[in-house]
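Ops channel
N.P.: pipeline sanity check, posting one input/output pair.
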């Protein structure tokens, strides 16, 4: 199991455009069309499965909200930060 990050570590490592909400890191990605968001969510789901890390994703009209936390550890770990960075890469 991964170790929880301290508040200072989370603040220092949190990728741009991500926010902390309690024991989760959260970002909303915006898209030009609904199906672009659906495609992103499918790609993000594939990356998450490869990492055996399963975020909550909410698909809306031209937007996908992603919430990451490490349930086994009870909060935010390096696994969450790494997956957030990978999601940012596929959004670019």
């Amino acid at each position: 199991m991964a170790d929880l990050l301290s508040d200072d570590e989370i603040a220092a490592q949190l990728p741009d455009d991500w926010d902390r909400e309690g024991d989760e890191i959260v970002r909303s990605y915006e898209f030009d069309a609904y199906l672009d968001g659906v495609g992103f969510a499918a790609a993000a789901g594939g990356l998450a499965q490869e990492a055996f890390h399963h975020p909550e994703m909410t698909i809306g009209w031209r937007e996908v909200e992603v919430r990451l936390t490490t349930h086994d550890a009870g909060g935010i770990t390096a696994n969450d930060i790494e997956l957030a960075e990978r999601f940012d890469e596929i959004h670019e």
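N.P.: looks fine end to end. The chain has a mean pLDDT of 96.
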